[in-house]
Amino acid sequence: MLLKCVAIDDDPLCLSILKKYCQKVPSLRLRGAYENPTDALPHLDRINPDIVFLDINMPEISGIRIAEIYNHKTTIIFTTSHKDFALEGFELNAADYLLKPLNFERFFQAVCKAKDRIEFKALKKLSFEDNDHVIIKSDYKNIKLKFSQILFIEALDNYVKIHTAKRNYLTLQNLKHFSKRLNGDFVRVHKSYIVAVSKIEYFSRDQLRINGREIPIGRSYAQNFHEKVK
């Protein structure tokens, strides 16, 4: 996946380093580098970059203000000499911030974060256009799971485990997140379980079985479940 990027920094040395670092990452294509932020603004809509490396403290217009305008269109990585600006950056949903002086290892780490975010947004967009699957983050990857693959979903202490016939996936996304995204084949049967109705082998008043696993039916969920499977 090739990513178009733009660098905006009023520090010529930092801008030169960003150019050099971008050239070292095969997936990056630097489409513009600007010391003056007002010179950069007319080009952002034309270039439509995937990533903008953006200094925070600049004359005429700050990086924070630019991010407020463009963060819904692109992925921001802030560059700054001041740790105090980091909080403002994250409040604007920046992918990361790089503290000056820059080093390549930290730069590459930030690019990987941004790339993950861009790929996740792209997959999420596809999921709305083709609503037969859900996107999960597991093992540092974005994974597309078809609804037909999912047997049931189980809440653990700090994770959710998604059970399929072939393997299980752990993710930090919670049951509420999945309740909103799954199709009509799924029903919440317990505070800790969502199940695929089509995968149920048998059920009674207070439990059911899927793929040999006994799953409790919570008292507060029982009526809705039994109406669903009538």
Task: Please provide a written account of the structure.
The chain is 35% helix and 32% strand. It has seven helices and 15 strands. It is elongated and about 70 Å long. Strand 4, helix 4 (86-91) and strand 5 (96-99) form a beta-alpha-beta unit. The relative contact order is 0.09. The longest helix is centred in the middle third of the chain and has 26 residues, at 104-129. By secondary structure, the chain is α/β, with parallel strands linked by helices.
Q: Kindly report the spatial arrangement of strands forming the biggest sheet.
A: 2-1-3-4-5
Name the CATH class of the largest domain.
Alpha Beta
Q: Find the count of extended strands (DSSP E, 2+ residues).
A: 15
CATH superfamily of the largest domain: Response regulator
Chain-averaged pLDDT: 89
* CATH topology assignment of the largest domain: Rossmann fold
By secondary-structure content and strand pairing, the structural class works out as alpha/beta
Q: Can you tell me the number of structural domains?
A: 2
- How many H/I helical runs? 7
What is the string of helix and strand elements? EHEHEHEHEHEEEEEHEEEEEH
Note the gap between the termini: 47 Å
GO molecular function: DNA binding; phosphorelay response regulator activity
Keywords: Phosphoprotein
Organism: Alkalitalea saponilacus
Protein name: Two component transcriptional regulator, LytTR family
Secondary structure layout plus pairing:
Blueprint lengths: L2 E6 L3 H13 L3 E7 L2 H11 L3 E5 L7 H8 L4 E6 L5 H6 L4 E4 L4 H26 L3 E6 L2 E6 L3 E6 L4 E5 L3 E4 L3 H7 L4 E5 L2 E4 L5 E2 L3 E4 L2 E4 L2 H10 L2
Parallel strand pairs: 1-2, 1-3, 3-4, 4-5
Antiparallel strand pairs: 6-7, 8-9, 8-12, 9-10, 11-12, 13-14, 14-15
Organism: Alkalitalea saponilacus
GO molecular function, one term: DNA binding
Protein name: Two component transcriptional regulator, LytTR family
